[in-house]
Design goal:
The structure is a single chain. The chain is mostly helical. It has a domain at 34-115. 64% of the residues lie in helices and 0% in strands. The protein contains five helices and no strands. The chain has helices at 14-31, 40-49, 59-66, 72-98, 101-115. Helix 4 packs antiparallel against helix 5 (101-115). The chain starts with 13 loop residues before the first helix and ends in a 7-residue tail after the last helix. The model is unreliable at 117-122 (pLDDT under 50).
């Protein structure tokens, strides 16, 4: 029988969060290719020009953040890696509130592996 959960949230495993973030960034860096979406070149031009491509869900914000890097193609890739890694950590923190700690880690690892299945940058 399940024991009742305490009202206090579980302690955040900072070391696991850092390791998860770093491993996702590194694995994305080693598995990412070049721009391959049909609209990818349009986004690169928009980043270089400082203009906008209004396309849901929020690619205009993605392009603005990628514009902080000198090369639009590299900026898009690097920002994609960072957002993917942050998403894996958020997945872990959410799962940690809902599941036991070992299962939360497993869910976060599986989520980061599934995310690597070939979602290339724009």
């Amino acid at each position: 029988m399940n024991e009742p959960r305490s009202a206090r949230p579980p302690a955040i495993d900072t070391l696991f969060c850092l390791a998860l973030f770093a491993s996702v960034v590194l694995s994305r860096a080693f598995t990412s290719g070049h721009v391959c979406y049909v609209v990818g070149p349009l986004h690169r031009v928009a980043i270089a020009n400082g203009s906008y491509v209004m396309q849901p869900p929020g690619y205009w914000l993605f392009n603005r953040m990628a514009a902080f890097f000198p090369d639009p193609a590299h900026g898009t890739l690097i920002f994609n890696w960072l957002v993917s890694a942050a998403g894996a950590v958020v997945c872990y923190l959410t799962a940690q509130r809902l599941l036991q700690p070992d299962r939360a880690q497993l869910v976060a690892i599986l989520d980061s592996v599934v995310s690597l299945r070939g979602s290339p940058a724009m």
